[in-house]
Amino acid sequence: MSTRAAPRARRSSSWARRRGSTAVGSREPVLDALGRAGFVARGVVYLLIGWIALLIALDHRTGEADRSGALELIAGKPYGFAVLWFLVVGFAGMALWRLMLALRPQRADKSGAASRLTSAGKAVLYIVAAYTTARFTVTGHASASSNQQSADFTTDLMRHGGGRWLVGAIGIGLVVGGAVMIKGALEKRFAKELRTGSLSAAARRRVLLLGAVGKTARGVIVVGAGGFLVDAAVRFDPSRARGVDGTLRALAAAPFGSAVLIAMAVGLAAFGAYSFCEARWRRL
Q: What is the pTM of this model?
């Protein structure tokens, strides 16, 4: 390359990098806003699930303590229609943000691949949440409860050869995954995902407490749901599978069940509040 061509090539390369950086930067604020809206939407839903669980513990409500029950509760309130559409946008935004994380180049090691796979799985879940919420908002018909969905899923798997073993394996995976969630929550591993440098020490402790309590409650539900799948596989009875609502009601039926369910309601509400904290301080 000639001496005059080299500076031109360097200038062209520098301009291309600046242009690419600008293009990416112009998209990031929108993507971040969608992700943060998703955390707010998730927070609203978990606060309501916690509230429903508390009412069940106090024998004031017999509705479903899951997302379907939360949507029905929102629909019956003033401005419920607007809130429901916000949830649709929030869930869709969270799905898009998770999808971008799955597609974004990361570390080439196993942890990077696992992170992308986890983000892709969560993107699918939030796509489903956005679709079912939008359908409920438009038609007024809620999707099946988490209990019914779990039973239907288990029934479909058990119709096929080896399905019983697959259900049991999924159940064991959920139990192990839930235990890992609880361990991580108690060790506050999620703190590295937050930008809390501007918070006082007391405020940071409160945020981490909400996260630890909330994530522990979620882990308990995951362990319980996994246990029900294992039980369904062992008994070869799909009807024994349970979702969020069924797991909470099973806890309520145990000794000191009302106290346990109240504690779970507080934990789920804490996770909702922590979701709002993530909307403000999560590293995106």
A: 0.78
